[in-house]
Amino acid sequence: MTSSAVTAVSRDGSHRFSKLVVEAVRLVEGLGVEGDSHAGATVQHLSRVRRDPTAPNLRQVHLIAAELLEELVADGFDVGPGQLGENVTTSGVDLLGLPRGTRLRLGADAVVEVTGLRNPCVQIERFRTGLLEVVTPRRPDGSVERRAGVMSVVLAGGEVRPGDPVVVELPPEPWSPLVPV
Predict the structure, then answer these.
(1) Residue 109 lies inside a defined structural domain of this protein
(2) For residue 90, is it within any domain?
(3) Domain MOSC spans what residues (predicted)?
(4) Which residue, among 76, 104, 83, has the nearest Cα to 92 in the 3D structure?
């Protein structure tokens, strides 16, 4: 069995699509990634702030699977860690298959709780033409599959760096599937 680990961490203090890969990030309980433009107790994504600036921030930390990035590279897309806006890139974790409320222990101290799926928007298409269709394919029943990672909130703060283990703690059953947040 493959061990689960953090492969990269990223942040950006400005509201840009891609984030800068850094040596470590500090997660702050109830806020997100210290120094990141999306950190905050209330919504920070600009489109959501316009709708309701008092809404809780369920998108404090964005996680994406390294396996997706590898698949995209194999499909001819020039993409690497942080470039799709994620804060934490993981390997060996089926992020999209987790139920809502799953807790992920990142490194020695940090704990995030998965709140839902990232809902990719036109910015991903502007970043790389054709990418939106690849990360939001249609299922046979016509519904949209969202493959661009999961969003989470910080339950316990701490430093996270590449090589740190990722420990998955499933919530009690019955499980709720992930939906876009």
Answers:
(1) yes
(2) yes
(3) 20-169
(4) 104
CB atoms within 10 A of CB 33: 26
Contacts of 83 (CB under 8 A, 6+ apart): 18, 19, 127
Q: Could you give the CA distance from residue 144 to residue 100 in angstroms, rounded to a whole number?
A: 18
Question: Which residue has 């680990």 as its token pair?
Answer: 5
Closest CA to 180 of 134, 155, 147, 153: 147
Strand bridging mode 25-28 / 158-160 = antiparallel
Q: What is the pLDDT of residues 66-92, one digit of tens each?
A: 999 999 999 999 999 999 999 999 999
Q: Give the CATH number, domain containing residue 111.
A: 2.40.33.20
Total structural domains within the chain: 1
Domain enclosing residue 116, as ranges: 5-169
